[in-house]
Design a protein that fits this description.
- Keywords: Hydrolase, Signal.
- This is Glycoside hydrolase family 95 protein.
- Pfam families: Glyco_hyd_65N_2, Glyco_hydro_95_C, Glyco_hydro_95_cat.
- This protein has three domains: about 200 residues, putative glycoside hydrolase family protein from bacillus halodurans (Beta-galactosidase, Chain A, domain 5, Distorted Sandwich); about 375 residues, Glycosyltransferase; about 80 residues, Sandwich (Immunoglobulin-like).
- The chain is built from 19 helices and 31 strands.
- Bound molecules: 2-acetamido-2-deoxy-beta-D-glucopyranose (12 copies).
- The site of one 2-acetamido-2-deoxy-beta-D-glucopyranose has 4 residues, from loops.
């Protein structure tokens, strides 16, 4: 609807657009001709992982929306008895009995399914929500609110990580630019004018009305201090902001009557300055290191005040220009020094991003917009994941006190998708993800393993996680669909194994990676049991659920494939991880070999979603759970008959070839539809489908899904939106991150292998669409700690260089193009291989 109105408007008033001055000539950014009004559609994101902000590009008044990464309601801050949504120890025996009964019922049920597992679930308790931290208001005092502005433009410069707004008024030029610096751990906004009269601007913090009113005071004459509680009772937070000016004066005034709801409030006013800047920092009394039994799972840290004062002092010891330079150097290092992609795009500096998006068509595409969206994904991950916590459902951008799905960590596709491209596009952003799992999931998850599953080794968690160690099965309507997913940690271990496989960082593997993987495997090896329904000698999980889809059954393909890959990763990495426990390794190897592999071809040629052949051909569910081994996994993509056949169940011992498995997976993918179904219409389901089609080397289906996602599920600000036709939609960052991943999967593939002695197959341009006939990539990563540079012309690679990192573990590598091996080599630490004949 909105697009039609806009088009009609254009017919009446033809306008000539030009990108605002300062917009990168490469076209690497987003630009607009109007101030934003709807947060999820129009505001532009900046962030450094610790802090985040959204700017509408205001003129007379700029209302920057603020986030602090650990600002959450709920948890032990709200309820001292909070226990991660788990059963009580006193319930352990009855729970174990209930679990046994449920398993028996599944095995004995005529169709292998049961109705409920509610007896295993727990009320979510003080689960809480990621919360916004209010707004920073920058208000010009000597301009009429309805003043005449000309030459308005705003943009997000992805080359430098800066949001900028430009306008003129009364013949004078104004600009405001903002960025969040990772090295300075601070965000900065600078307003400047060409006017001789100078600026008069007032700064204030405003709070959300559904949070307790904070106190805002003058910390000193140029520094505002906000102290508040996210909820009462709840976590404490603080924002501290220093104002500086070029010329003029700065004064802080504080009063009980300044307006707003605060008990005390304060504002800082700059007068007659040629420019003014505000540098802000923020923190909470949350501490991820206090989430274990030693700290009584309190997650309670120190009052952030002292650290913030020091941080702010450090940041403001540098001039604005120094901070800006430091930030730009960091952005370049994080995003561009070691990686570059060129899709042969031509920058369009005459069409604003929202118009480009509204003109975008499925299948026709627009390489320029696709390239921008790719870069945007990397920018958003670097801007949200480099703090202490990983990127959540909305990255770190959320404005409300309570956000959709709590702005939490869903680990049945969403959190995984956030990180799919981290390794392949050479990003150093995963430390917070690994720390978060180790420090908030594992400690309480060991309790869950014990109290819910009666397993005393390892740990488990389910689909939905907060930052307070929520590891239980969250009760709710149809809870099994959402809650019954103890394999979430096995899926997350893809990222742990892949980080090692892509970097060969042995020191990390020994100290963090392998111990994490092992502790997850220890749980799952005990949670498998003999299949007493099919009685085929295989080990299965029961109860299980395909993510977010009934029925509750046994041996869900998703669960079995995930656990198989988990065990396989343990086998491949144990020795390098320093494993000395031979009994444990034997147990894993036996289980891996005897388990049901989650690979069954069903009655209509489909890859079965469950061991009981009950898939409906018309099931267009949003998740592609049973295809997890196709992408991002390899249990299907690189099906290894010698290791994955046997124990197929159903009383039939079938031996599949890889092609048979892939054919079945393709039948399932086709029947799953295009990612707009009666159940959902989100972006992540479309980009996942795009990645899967790329895995099948099907360029036209790949591009269809990729362009369909872009056309339908991305807002004017290119945020991925869950409900695209809502005027004020929900953002969900996953498709922003799934988009570059799918795109990468069309350019380069190295699916994992089931045995490290098997050659690594690097496939070049498996699904290149005709719209990207020529291009190049620099610094892509493939498995085996190898980096890859490639140029292609007329749809064919022309030059490819593979460089093995220092210290890499030698592998046999086959480089393939169009099914033909173009080169074979043994990778050696520090050595390069160039191929120029295709
Ligand atoms: C530890 O936390 C529990 C709630 O989980 C609480 O009942 C108990 O008092 C706490 N103990 C200490 C020593 O703080
Ligand atoms: C299994 O059988 C039960 C009892 O007849 C029925 O209610 C249920 O819908 C069936 N489930 C499936 C997935 O067919
Ligand atoms: C503000 O508005 C008044 C009249 O309403 C006008 O005289 C004045 O020039 C305006 N100031 C600016 C800076 O536009
Ligand atoms: C805005 O511009 C119009 C026409 O150019 C003029 O009539 C009006 O006075 C201006 N308003 C302000 C507040 O400057
Ligand atoms: C703030 O500035 C005023 C006026 O310049 C001065 O009197 C006062 O001491 C300053 N206060 C602080 C806390 O620096
Ligand atoms: C705000 O200040 C009042 C009065 O000093 C105090 O009672 C209250 O606890 C403060 N609120 C917060 C959130 O610190
Ligand atoms: C604002 O930015 C300009 C341009 O980079 C710079 O010269 C000026 O010092 C900055 N102002 C402040 C107060 O930091
Ligand atoms: C403080 O006062 C300003 C100016 O009136 C207002 O905009 C802001 O919302 C107030 N802040 C709080 C936290 O109440
Ligand atoms: C105000 O406090 C901040 C934070 O400690 C400090 O950086 C700044 O120098 C102080 N300014 C004044 C005028 O005292
Ligand atoms: C990755 O980033 C971290 C900071 O988050 C830094 O300590 C580390 O040295 C970086 N590693 C590489 C390989 O650049
Ligand atoms: C799929 O087909 C079955 C059997 O014909 C029917 O019961 C079911 O409602 C259909 N489901 C959808 C989503 O159309
Ligand atoms: C997506 O699938 C729906 C349902 O089959 C169909 O109506 C629609 O045309 C398809 N759209 C695209 C772009 O594939």
């Amino acid at each position: 609807m909105r697009q039609l109105v806009k088009a009609a408007h254009l017919l009446l008033l033809p306008v000539v657009w030009a990108a605002p001055s300062g917009f990168p000539s490469s076209g690497n950014g987003l630009w607009y001709t109007e101030t934003g009004s709807i947060w999820s559609r129009h505001f532009l994101p900046i962030g450094n992982g610790f802090l985040a902000a959204m700017t509408p590009g205001g003129t007379t008044q700029e209302m920057t929306q603020l986030n602090i990464e650990s600002l959450w309601s709920g948890g032990p801050f709200a309820d001292p008895t909070y226990n991660g949504g788990n059963k009580l120890l006193s319930e352990k025996d009855s729970t174990a009995a209930a679990m046994q009964t449920i398993r028996q019922e599944i095995f004995e049920s005529p169709n292998g399914t049961i109705e409920g597992i509610d007896v295993l679930t727990t009320d979510q308790g003080a689960y809480g929500s990621y919360s916004g931290a209010g707004y920073l208001l920058s208000t010009l005092n000597d301009f009429n609110a309805s003043g005449n502005f000309t030459d308005y433009g705003r943009f997000l410069d992805l080359d430098h990580g800066i949001a900028k707004t430009l306008w003129s008024s009364g013949g004078e030029e104004f600009s405001r630019e903002a960025f969040c610096s990772f090295p300075a751990k601070a965000c900065i906004s600078n307003t400047s004018t060409s006017s001789k009269k100078g600026l008069s601007q007032t700064y204030a913090f405003s709070a959300l009305t559904d949070m307790p009113a904070p106190n805002v005071t003058c910390f000193n004459n140029s520094t505002l201090r906000l102290v508040g509680l996210v909820a009462d009772p709840g976590m404490a937070y603080e924002l501290l902001a220093t104002v500086r000016s070029s010329g003029g004066s700065i004064a802080c005034s504080s009063s009980a009557n300044l307006g707003g709801g605060a008990l005390t409030n304060a504002t800082i006013t700059v007068d007659s300055a040629s420019s003014a800047s505000i540098t802000w920092v923020g923190g909470t009394n949350y501490d991820m290191n206090a989430g274990d039994a030693t700290h009584n799972f309190s997650f309670l840290g120190v009052d952030p005040h002292e650290a913030l004062v020091a941080q702010l002092k450090e940041a403001t010891s540098k001039t604005y220009s120094e901070l800006l330079t430091e930030h730009q150097t960091d952005v370049k290092a994080a995003l561009y020094d070691n990686f570059a992609l060129d899709l042969g795009q031509k920058p369009d500096l005459e069409t604003p991003t929202d118009v480009l998006r509204s003109q975008y068509e499925v299948d026709t595409g627009n390489p320029y917009l696709e390239w921008v969206l790719f870069n945007y994904g990397r920018y958003l991950l670097a801007s949200s994941a480099r703090g202490d916590l990983p990127a959540n459902l909305q990255g770190k951008w959320a404005f409300d006190a309570s956000n959709p799905w709590s702005g939490d960590y869903h680990a049945n596709i969403n959190l995984q998708m956030n990180y799919w491209f981290a390794e392949t596009t050479n990003m150093n952003v995963s430390a917070s993800l690994f720390n978060y799992m180790q420090k908030t999931w594992a400690p309480r998850g060991a309790y869950t393993a014990n109290v819910l599953y009666n397993i005393s080794q390892g740990w488990v968690t389910h689909d939905e996680m907060n930052i307070f160690g929520h590891t239980g099965m969250k009760a709710g309507e149809g809870s099994a669909e959402w809650a019954d997913f103890p394999e979430s940690n096995a899926w997350m271990m893809f990222h742990v194994w892949d980080h090692f496989d892509f970097t060969n960082d042995l020191e990390w593997w020994k100290s963090q990676g392998y111990p994490l993987l092992k502790s997850v495997a220890q749980f799952h090896v005990k949670n498998l049991r003999p299949d007493s329904r099919f009685n085929d000698g295989s080990l299965v999980v029961a109860p299980c659920n395909s993510p977010e889809q009934p029925p509750i059954t046994l041996a869900c393909a998703n669960s079995q494939q995930l656990i198989w890959q988990l065990f396989n990763a343990v086998e491949k990495g144990a020795k390098l991880g320093g494993e000395t426990d031979a009994a444990f390794l034997d147990e894993i190897t036996n289980a891996r070999s005897n388990m049901d592999k989650g690979v069954h071809v069903g009655s209509w040629g489909q890859l079965q979603e469950w061991k009981v052949d009950m898939d409906q051909p018309n099931d267009t569910h949003r998740h592609l759970s049973h295809l997890v081994g196709l992408y991002p996994g390899y249990a299907l993509a690189n099906f290894e008959p010698s290791l994955q056949n046997g124990a197929h169940g159903g009383g039939v011992d079938v031996d599949y070839t890889r092609q048979q498995v892939l054919d079945a997976a393709q039948v399932s993918l086709i029947h799953r539809g295009n990612g707009t179904g009666p159940d959902a219409d989100s972006g992540w389901e479309k980009v996942w489908r795009a990645a899967c089609w790329a895995q099948f080397a099907n360029a036209s289906e790949f591009y269809h899904e990729l362009t369909y996602a872009l056309q339908r599920n991305f807002a004017e600000n290119l945020f991925s939106i869950y409900d695209p036709f809502d005027a004020d939609p929900i953002i969900q960052i996953d498709a922003n991150f799934g988009f570059p991943s799918a795109l990468m999967n069309a350019l380069i593939q190295t699916p994992d292998v089931a045995d490290s002695s098997l050659p690594l197959e690097v496939t070049l341009l498996p699904a290149l669409p005709p719209t990207w006939p020529s291009g190049s990539i620099r610094g892509a990563r493939v498995r085996g700690a190898i980096s890859l540079d490639m140029t292609w012309t007329d749809g064919k690679p022309t030059k490819v260089a593979l460089k093995t990192s220092e210290g890499a573990i030698p592998r046999t590598v086959n480089v393939l193009y169009k099914g033909q091996v173009k080169a074979t080599f043994n990778s050696k630490s520090g050595e390069s291989k160039t191929i120029s004949s295709f």
